[in-house]
Amino acid sequence: MIAMQHDIPLDRSGPNADAMAEAVSTCIRCGFCLSACPTYDVMQRESDSPRGRIILMKEVLEGAMPADKAAPHLDACLGCLACEPACPSGVSYRHLLSPYRSLVRDRVSAAWPQRLQRWLTAQTLPYPKRFRFAARLGVIGKKFAALVPSVLRPMLELLPSSLPTAKPLQEHYAASGEQVGRVALLAGCAQQVLAPGINVATIAVLRHIGLEVVVPPEQSCCGSLAWHVGDGERAAKFARNNVRAFSNDQQPIDAIVTNAAGCGSGMQEYGMILRGTDVESQAKALAATVKDVSVVVCEHADRLRLKRPSFVHEAEAIVRVAYHDACHLANAQGVRLQPREVLCRIPDVELVDVGESHLCCGSAGTYNLDQPETADELGRRKAKAVLATGAPIVVSGNIGCLTQLQTHLNSMATEAHPAPRVMHTMEFLNACLVESPSP
Protein backbone atom coordinates (compact mmCIF):
# COMPACT_ATOMS: atom_id res chain seq x y z
CA MET A 1 0.00 0.00 0.00
CA ILE A 2 1.14 3.54 -0.80
CA ALA A 3 1.00 6.52 1.56
CA MET A 4 -1.66 9.07 0.70
CA GLN A 5 -0.48 11.94 -1.48
CA HIS A 6 -1.75 15.45 -0.82
CA ASP A 7 -1.58 19.01 -2.11
CA ILE A 8 -2.43 20.85 1.11
CA PRO A 9 -1.33 24.53 1.02
CA LEU A 10 0.71 24.68 4.22
CA ASP A 11 0.97 28.48 4.20
CA ARG A 12 -2.83 28.82 4.35
CA SER A 13 -3.70 25.96 6.70
CA GLY A 14 -2.94 27.38 10.13
CA PRO A 15 -0.10 26.90 12.62
CA ASN A 16 -0.55 23.12 12.72
CA ALA A 17 -0.55 22.70 8.94
CA ASP A 18 2.59 20.57 8.83
CA ALA A 19 1.27 18.20 11.52
CA MET A 20 -2.05 17.85 9.68
CA ALA A 21 -0.28 17.19 6.39
CA GLU A 22 1.94 14.57 8.00
CA ALA A 23 -1.08 12.77 9.45
CA VAL A 24 -2.70 12.70 6.01
CA SER A 25 0.44 11.48 4.24
CA THR A 26 1.07 8.76 6.85
CA CYS A 27 -2.26 7.07 6.12
CA ILE A 28 -1.89 4.11 3.74
CA ARG A 29 -5.67 3.44 3.56
CA CYS A 30 -5.23 -0.09 4.91
CA GLY A 31 -8.55 -0.08 6.81
CA PHE A 32 -7.29 -1.44 10.14
CA CYS A 33 -8.95 1.56 11.80
CA LEU A 34 -12.45 0.55 10.68
CA SER A 35 -12.94 -2.22 13.22
CA ALA A 36 -11.72 0.05 16.03
CA CYS A 37 -14.00 3.00 15.18
CA PRO A 38 -17.24 3.23 17.22
CA THR A 39 -19.09 5.39 14.70
CA TYR A 40 -18.18 3.10 11.81
CA ASP A 41 -19.38 0.18 13.93
CA VAL A 42 -22.74 1.93 14.40
CA MET A 43 -23.20 3.54 10.97
CA GLN A 44 -21.28 1.16 8.68
CA ARG A 45 -20.35 3.98 6.29
CA GLU A 46 -16.84 4.54 4.92
CA SER A 47 -17.30 8.30 5.30
CA ASP A 48 -17.88 7.77 9.03
CA SER A 49 -14.62 5.88 9.56
CA PRO A 50 -11.18 7.36 10.34
CA ARG A 51 -9.92 6.48 6.87
CA GLY A 52 -12.92 8.09 5.24
CA ARG A 53 -12.68 11.19 7.41
CA ILE A 54 -8.98 11.62 6.64
CA ILE A 55 -9.83 11.67 2.93
CA LEU A 56 -12.63 14.18 3.53
CA MET A 57 -10.36 16.49 5.54
CA LYS A 58 -7.67 16.20 2.88
CA GLU A 59 -10.19 17.21 0.19
CA VAL A 60 -11.36 20.23 2.21
CA LEU A 61 -7.83 21.34 3.05
CA GLU A 62 -6.85 21.11 -0.61
CA GLY A 63 -9.87 23.18 -1.60
CA ALA A 64 -11.50 20.38 -3.60
CA MET A 65 -14.55 20.11 -1.32
CA PRO A 66 -16.51 22.69 0.68
CA ALA A 67 -16.26 22.24 4.45
CA ASP A 68 -20.06 22.16 4.75
CA LYS A 69 -20.25 18.99 2.66
CA ALA A 70 -17.76 17.13 4.87
CA ALA A 71 -19.12 18.53 8.15
CA PRO A 72 -21.84 15.92 8.91
CA HIS A 73 -19.30 13.11 8.85
CA LEU A 74 -16.61 15.02 10.75
CA ASP A 75 -19.06 16.30 13.36
CA ALA A 76 -20.07 12.67 13.94
CA CYS A 77 -16.50 11.76 14.93
CA LEU A 78 -16.15 11.16 18.67
CA GLY A 79 -12.47 12.05 18.72
CA CYS A 80 -12.01 8.96 20.90
CA LEU A 81 -8.71 8.14 19.12
CA ALA A 82 -9.37 4.39 19.14
CA CYS A 83 -8.02 4.51 15.59
CA GLU A 84 -4.53 5.50 16.74
CA PRO A 85 -3.50 2.31 18.59
CA ALA A 86 -5.15 0.28 15.81
CA CYS A 87 -3.16 1.99 13.05
CA PRO A 88 -0.07 0.04 11.86
CA SER A 89 1.32 3.16 10.17
CA GLY A 90 1.15 5.36 13.26
CA VAL A 91 -1.21 8.02 11.92
CA SER A 92 -1.54 10.74 14.56
CA TYR A 93 -5.24 11.38 14.03
CA ARG A 94 -5.31 13.83 16.95
CA HIS A 95 -2.90 16.13 15.10
CA LEU A 96 -5.36 16.30 12.23
CA LEU A 97 -8.88 16.34 13.65
CA SER A 98 -8.85 19.14 16.24
CA PRO A 99 -6.64 21.56 14.26
CA TYR A 100 -8.83 20.89 11.21
CA ARG A 101 -12.02 21.62 13.15
CA SER A 102 -10.51 24.84 14.43
CA LEU A 103 -9.36 25.87 10.95
CA VAL A 104 -12.72 25.36 9.21
CA ARG A 105 -15.02 26.37 12.08
CA ASP A 106 -16.07 29.64 10.43
CA ARG A 107 -16.69 27.92 7.09
CA VAL A 108 -19.31 25.51 8.44
CA SER A 109 -22.89 26.70 8.83
CA ALA A 110 -25.22 25.37 11.52
CA ALA A 111 -28.94 25.60 12.16
CA TRP A 112 -30.00 27.97 14.93
CA PRO A 113 -31.00 25.22 17.41
CA GLN A 114 -27.52 23.74 17.14
CA ARG A 115 -25.93 27.18 17.49
CA LEU A 116 -28.04 27.80 20.61
CA GLN A 117 -27.03 24.49 22.16
CA ARG A 118 -23.34 25.09 21.45
CA TRP A 119 -23.52 28.64 22.80
CA LEU A 120 -25.18 27.51 26.02
CA THR A 121 -22.61 24.74 26.43
CA ALA A 122 -19.70 27.12 25.86
CA GLN A 123 -21.11 29.68 28.28
CA THR A 124 -21.83 27.27 31.14
CA LEU A 125 -19.84 24.00 31.24
CA PRO A 126 -16.35 25.55 31.51
CA TYR A 127 -17.39 27.82 34.41
CA PRO A 128 -18.34 25.94 37.62
CA LYS A 129 -20.39 28.76 39.18
CA ARG A 130 -22.36 29.36 35.98
CA PHE A 131 -22.77 25.64 35.42
CA ARG A 132 -24.06 25.05 38.95
CA PHE A 133 -26.67 27.78 38.45
CA ALA A 134 -27.63 26.38 35.04
CA ALA A 135 -27.72 22.82 36.40
CA ARG A 136 -30.05 23.86 39.22
CA LEU A 137 -32.40 25.34 36.64
CA GLY A 138 -32.00 22.18 34.59
CA VAL A 139 -32.94 19.92 37.50
CA ILE A 140 -36.18 21.91 37.82
CA GLY A 141 -36.60 21.87 34.04
CA LYS A 142 -36.46 18.05 33.95
CA LYS A 143 -40.02 18.08 35.30
CA PHE A 144 -41.12 20.04 32.24
CA ALA A 145 -38.88 18.36 29.66
CA ALA A 146 -41.74 18.02 27.17
CA LEU A 147 -41.88 21.82 26.91
CA VAL A 148 -38.13 22.20 26.35
CA PRO A 149 -36.82 22.44 22.74
CA SER A 150 -35.68 19.00 21.57
CA VAL A 151 -32.11 20.20 20.95
CA LEU A 152 -31.75 21.02 24.66
CA ARG A 153 -33.33 17.85 26.09
CA PRO A 154 -30.11 15.78 26.06
CA MET A 155 -28.62 18.36 28.42
CA LEU A 156 -31.48 17.78 30.86
CA GLU A 157 -31.42 14.00 30.55
CA LEU A 158 -27.77 13.85 31.63
CA LEU A 159 -28.37 15.86 34.80
CA PRO A 160 -28.95 13.98 38.07
CA SER A 161 -32.23 14.35 39.94
CA SER A 162 -30.40 16.54 42.47
CA LEU A 163 -26.98 18.18 42.69
CA PRO A 164 -24.45 17.23 45.36
CA THR A 165 -23.35 19.84 47.86
CA ALA A 166 -20.48 21.99 46.63
CA LYS A 167 -17.07 21.21 48.14
CA PRO A 168 -14.78 24.26 47.80
CA LEU A 169 -11.10 23.40 47.64
CA GLN A 170 -8.25 24.91 49.61
CA GLU A 171 -5.16 26.21 47.87
CA HIS A 172 -2.85 23.88 49.78
CA TYR A 173 -2.96 20.43 51.38
CA ALA A 174 -0.05 19.03 53.37
CA ALA A 175 1.14 15.48 52.82
CA SER A 176 0.10 12.89 55.36
CA GLY A 177 3.19 11.63 57.13
CA GLU A 178 6.51 11.71 55.32
CA GLN A 179 6.42 14.00 52.26
CA VAL A 180 7.87 12.45 49.11
CA GLY A 181 6.78 15.00 46.53
CA ARG A 182 4.65 17.97 45.54
CA VAL A 183 1.98 18.15 42.85
CA ALA A 184 -0.56 20.64 41.49
CA LEU A 185 -4.15 19.59 40.85
CA LEU A 186 -6.40 20.62 37.96
CA ALA A 187 -9.80 20.92 39.65
CA GLY A 188 -11.91 20.61 36.50
CA CYS A 189 -15.17 22.31 35.55
CA ALA A 190 -18.34 20.21 35.27
CA GLN A 191 -16.81 17.71 37.66
CA GLN A 192 -16.79 20.27 40.48
CA VAL A 193 -20.56 20.58 40.09
CA LEU A 194 -21.67 17.04 39.21
CA ALA A 195 -19.21 15.06 41.35
CA PRO A 196 -17.17 17.25 43.72
CA GLY A 197 -16.33 14.14 45.74
CA ILE A 198 -13.88 13.09 43.02
CA ASN A 199 -11.51 15.94 43.86
CA VAL A 200 -11.91 15.28 47.58
CA ALA A 201 -11.01 11.61 47.07
CA THR A 202 -8.13 12.49 44.74
CA ILE A 203 -6.57 14.84 47.26
CA ALA A 204 -7.01 12.28 50.04
CA VAL A 205 -5.24 9.58 48.03
CA LEU A 206 -2.40 11.89 46.99
CA ARG A 207 -1.86 13.00 50.60
CA HIS A 208 -2.00 9.39 51.72
CA ILE A 209 0.99 8.45 49.55
CA GLY A 210 3.00 11.41 50.86
CA LEU A 211 2.35 14.14 48.31
CA GLU A 212 1.77 17.78 49.08
CA VAL A 213 -1.07 19.08 46.89
CA VAL A 214 -1.54 22.64 45.66
CA VAL A 215 -4.65 23.85 43.83
CA PRO A 216 -3.78 27.06 41.93
CA PRO A 217 -6.70 29.45 42.49
CA GLU A 218 -6.22 31.25 39.15
CA GLN A 219 -6.70 28.07 37.09
CA SER A 220 -9.57 27.77 34.62
CA CYS A 221 -11.15 25.17 32.37
CA CYS A 222 -8.42 23.23 30.59
CA GLY A 223 -9.89 24.14 27.19
CA SER A 224 -10.49 20.58 26.01
CA LEU A 225 -14.22 21.00 25.44
CA ALA A 226 -13.60 23.99 23.17
CA TRP A 227 -10.62 22.41 21.39
CA HIS A 228 -12.48 19.22 20.53
CA VAL A 229 -15.36 21.10 18.87
CA GLY A 230 -13.06 23.39 16.88
CA ASP A 231 -13.23 26.54 19.00
CA GLY A 232 -9.50 27.06 18.88
CA GLU A 233 -9.65 30.68 20.00
CA ARG A 234 -11.50 29.86 23.22
CA ALA A 235 -9.31 26.80 23.84
CA ALA A 236 -6.18 28.94 23.46
CA LYS A 237 -7.56 31.48 25.93
CA PHE A 238 -8.07 28.79 28.59
CA ALA A 239 -4.74 27.13 27.83
CA ARG A 240 -2.84 30.41 28.04
CA ASN A 241 -4.44 31.17 31.41
CA ASN A 242 -3.46 27.76 32.78
CA VAL A 243 0.10 28.06 31.55
CA ARG A 244 0.29 31.22 33.63
CA ALA A 245 -1.64 29.85 36.64
CA PHE A 246 0.37 26.65 36.98
CA SER A 247 3.67 28.49 36.50
CA ASN A 248 3.08 31.09 39.22
CA ASP A 249 4.10 28.85 42.10
CA GLN A 250 7.57 29.70 43.34
CA GLN A 251 8.25 26.16 44.55
CA PRO A 252 8.83 23.39 41.99
CA ILE A 253 6.20 20.70 41.44
CA ASP A 254 6.72 17.13 40.32
CA ALA A 255 3.63 16.97 38.13
CA ILE A 256 0.33 18.58 37.23
CA VAL A 257 -2.23 15.97 38.19
CA THR A 258 -5.53 15.52 36.37
CA ASN A 259 -8.37 13.20 37.34
CA ALA A 260 -10.49 13.54 34.21
CA ALA A 261 -9.20 11.76 31.10
CA GLY A 262 -10.39 14.44 28.69
CA CYS A 263 -8.79 17.23 30.71
CA GLY A 264 -5.49 15.41 30.96
CA SER A 265 -5.25 14.70 27.24
CA GLY A 266 -6.29 18.29 26.48
CA MET A 267 -3.54 19.75 28.67
CA GLN A 268 -1.04 17.41 27.07
CA GLU A 269 -1.96 19.04 23.74
CA TYR A 270 -1.21 22.60 24.91
CA GLY A 271 1.78 22.71 22.59
CA MET A 272 -0.58 22.14 19.67
CA ILE A 273 -3.29 24.50 20.95
CA LEU A 274 -0.79 27.33 21.51
CA ARG A 275 1.46 26.61 18.56
CA GLY A 276 2.79 29.75 16.92
CA THR A 277 2.12 31.92 19.97
CA ASP A 278 4.57 33.65 22.30
CA VAL A 279 4.00 30.98 24.98
CA GLU A 280 4.40 27.89 22.78
CA SER A 281 7.61 26.75 24.48
CA GLN A 282 6.11 27.25 27.94
CA ALA A 283 3.00 25.36 26.86
CA LYS A 284 5.06 22.40 25.64
CA ALA A 285 7.06 22.34 28.86
CA LEU A 286 3.93 22.42 30.99
CA ALA A 287 2.23 19.74 28.89
CA ALA A 288 5.15 17.41 29.52
CA THR A 289 4.48 17.56 33.29
CA VAL A 290 0.78 16.60 33.06
CA LYS A 291 -0.04 13.14 34.43
CA ASP A 292 -3.24 11.31 35.18
CA VAL A 293 -3.70 10.71 38.89
CA SER A 294 -3.62 6.93 38.40
CA VAL A 295 -0.10 7.22 36.95
CA VAL A 296 1.10 9.29 39.90
CA VAL A 297 -0.47 6.92 42.43
CA CYS A 298 1.02 3.91 40.63
CA GLU A 299 4.48 5.51 40.86
CA HIS A 300 4.05 5.55 44.64
CA ALA A 301 1.97 2.37 44.92
CA ASP A 302 4.21 0.85 47.57
CA ARG A 303 3.13 3.61 49.95
CA LEU A 304 -0.54 2.64 49.72
CA ARG A 305 -2.07 1.09 52.83
CA LEU A 306 -5.21 -0.65 51.64
CA LYS A 307 -8.12 -2.64 53.02
CA ARG A 308 -11.24 -4.09 51.43
CA PRO A 309 -13.85 -1.44 50.45
CA SER A 310 -15.46 0.05 53.54
CA PHE A 311 -18.96 0.15 52.03
CA VAL A 312 -19.08 -3.51 50.93
CA HIS A 313 -20.89 -5.98 53.18
CA GLU A 314 -18.51 -8.40 54.91
CA ALA A 315 -20.61 -11.34 53.74
CA GLU A 316 -19.23 -10.80 50.23
CA ALA A 317 -15.89 -12.59 50.29
CA ILE A 318 -14.82 -11.28 46.87
CA VAL A 319 -15.75 -7.85 45.55
CA ARG A 320 -16.13 -7.86 41.74
CA VAL A 321 -15.28 -4.51 40.20
CA ALA A 322 -15.63 -3.70 36.51
CA TYR A 323 -13.06 -1.28 35.08
CA HIS A 324 -14.11 0.91 32.13
CA ASP A 325 -11.32 2.37 30.00
CA ALA A 326 -11.98 6.05 29.32
CA CYS A 327 -10.95 6.70 25.71
CA HIS A 328 -8.88 9.79 26.43
CA LEU A 329 -7.04 7.90 29.14
CA ALA A 330 -6.41 4.63 27.26
CA ASN A 331 -6.04 5.97 23.71
CA ALA A 332 -4.92 9.59 24.06
CA GLN A 333 -2.66 9.17 27.11
CA GLY A 334 -1.80 5.50 26.75
CA VAL A 335 -2.79 4.81 30.36
CA ARG A 336 -4.24 1.33 30.68
CA LEU A 337 -2.11 -0.67 33.08
CA GLN A 338 -1.66 1.82 35.95
CA PRO A 339 -5.30 2.03 37.12
CA ARG A 340 -5.57 -1.75 36.96
CA GLU A 341 -2.31 -2.26 38.84
CA VAL A 342 -3.44 0.02 41.66
CA LEU A 343 -6.94 -1.48 41.90
CA CYS A 344 -5.56 -5.03 41.93
CA ARG A 345 -3.64 -4.21 45.10
CA ILE A 346 -6.88 -3.86 47.08
CA PRO A 347 -7.63 -6.89 49.28
CA ASP A 348 -10.59 -9.07 48.24
CA VAL A 349 -11.10 -7.16 44.95
CA GLU A 350 -11.48 -9.06 41.68
CA LEU A 351 -11.04 -6.70 38.75
CA VAL A 352 -12.92 -7.55 35.54
CA ASP A 353 -12.74 -5.87 32.16
CA VAL A 354 -15.79 -4.60 30.29
CA GLY A 355 -16.51 -6.19 26.91
CA GLU A 356 -15.96 -4.16 23.73
CA SER A 357 -13.55 -2.02 25.72
CA HIS A 358 -12.26 -0.40 22.53
CA LEU A 359 -15.68 1.14 21.83
CA CYS A 360 -16.34 4.59 23.29
CA CYS A 361 -19.26 4.96 25.72
CA GLY A 362 -20.55 7.91 23.70
CA SER A 363 -19.71 10.70 26.12
CA ALA A 364 -16.61 12.23 24.48
CA GLY A 365 -16.76 15.76 25.87
CA THR A 366 -19.98 17.29 24.56
CA TYR A 367 -20.62 14.57 21.97
CA ASN A 368 -23.67 13.26 23.82
CA LEU A 369 -25.13 16.76 23.48
CA ASP A 370 -24.07 17.34 19.86
CA GLN A 371 -24.85 13.83 18.52
CA PRO A 372 -27.42 12.42 20.98
CA GLU A 373 -28.66 9.52 18.83
CA THR A 374 -25.24 7.97 18.23
CA ALA A 375 -24.18 8.71 21.80
CA ASP A 376 -27.33 7.03 23.08
CA GLU A 377 -26.66 3.90 21.02
CA LEU A 378 -23.08 3.68 22.26
CA GLY A 379 -24.17 4.41 25.84
CA ARG A 380 -26.70 1.58 25.80
CA ARG A 381 -24.15 -0.85 24.39
CA LYS A 382 -21.60 0.09 27.01
CA ALA A 383 -24.16 -0.24 29.81
CA LYS A 384 -25.10 -3.73 28.56
CA ALA A 385 -21.43 -4.68 28.51
CA VAL A 386 -21.05 -3.49 32.10
CA LEU A 387 -24.11 -5.47 33.19
CA ALA A 388 -22.73 -8.56 31.46
CA THR A 389 -19.78 -8.56 33.86
CA GLY A 390 -22.13 -9.10 36.81
CA ALA A 391 -20.04 -6.66 38.85
CA PRO A 392 -21.96 -4.54 41.39
CA ILE A 393 -19.40 -1.74 41.02
CA VAL A 394 -17.96 -0.08 37.91
CA VAL A 395 -15.09 2.40 38.05
CA SER A 396 -13.56 4.73 35.49
CA GLY A 397 -11.29 7.76 35.35
CA ASN A 398 -13.42 10.36 33.58
CA ILE A 399 -16.44 12.38 34.69
CA GLY A 400 -18.05 12.23 31.23
CA CYS A 401 -17.88 8.43 31.18
CA LEU A 402 -19.24 8.22 34.72
CA THR A 403 -22.20 10.44 33.83
CA GLN A 404 -22.91 8.49 30.64
CA LEU A 405 -22.66 5.12 32.41
CA GLN A 406 -24.86 6.22 35.29
CA THR A 407 -27.54 7.55 32.94
CA HIS A 408 -27.79 4.37 30.88
CA LEU A 409 -27.35 1.91 33.74
CA ASN A 410 -30.15 3.68 35.63
CA SER A 411 -32.41 3.45 32.58
CA MET A 412 -31.93 -0.34 32.51
CA ALA A 413 -32.26 -0.91 36.25
CA THR A 414 -35.19 -2.77 37.80
CA GLU A 415 -36.16 -3.43 41.38
CA ALA A 416 -34.83 -6.97 41.08
CA HIS A 417 -31.65 -5.85 39.31
CA PRO A 418 -30.52 -2.42 40.55
CA ALA A 419 -27.90 -0.48 38.64
CA PRO A 420 -24.26 -1.12 39.57
CA ARG A 421 -22.60 1.56 41.65
CA VAL A 422 -20.64 3.95 39.41
CA MET A 423 -17.48 5.42 40.92
CA HIS A 424 -14.35 7.28 39.92
CA THR A 425 -11.18 5.22 40.35
CA MET A 426 -9.97 7.59 43.09
CA GLU A 427 -13.32 7.47 44.92
CA PHE A 428 -13.10 3.70 45.07
CA LEU A 429 -9.45 3.76 46.10
CA ASN A 430 -10.13 6.34 48.80
CA ALA A 431 -12.80 4.04 50.28
CA CYS A 432 -10.10 1.39 50.60
CA LEU A 433 -7.43 3.48 52.31
CA VAL A 434 -6.33 2.72 55.83
CA GLU A 435 -6.52 5.92 57.88
CA SER A 436 -7.49 8.05 54.91
CA PRO A 437 -6.88 11.78 55.58
CA SER A 438 -9.72 14.23 55.06
CA PRO A 439 -9.01 17.45 53.11
From TrEMBL:
Cofactor binding annotation: Binds 2 [4Fe-4S] clusters.
EC code(s) of this entry: 1.1.99.14
SUPFAM superfamilies, A to Z: 4Fe-4S ferredoxins (SSF54862)
Domain of life: Bacteria
Function: Component of a complex that catalyzes the oxidation of glycolate to glyoxylate.
Required cofactor(s): [4Fe-4S] cluster
Molecular function per GO: 4 iron, 4 sulfur cluster binding; glycolate dehydrogenase activity; metal ion binding
Keyword Glycoprotein set for record: no
Protein name (Swiss-Prot/TrEMBL): Glycolate oxidase iron-sulfur subunit
Organism taxonomic ancestry: Bacteria, Pseudomonadati, Planctomycetota, Planctomycetia, Pirellulales
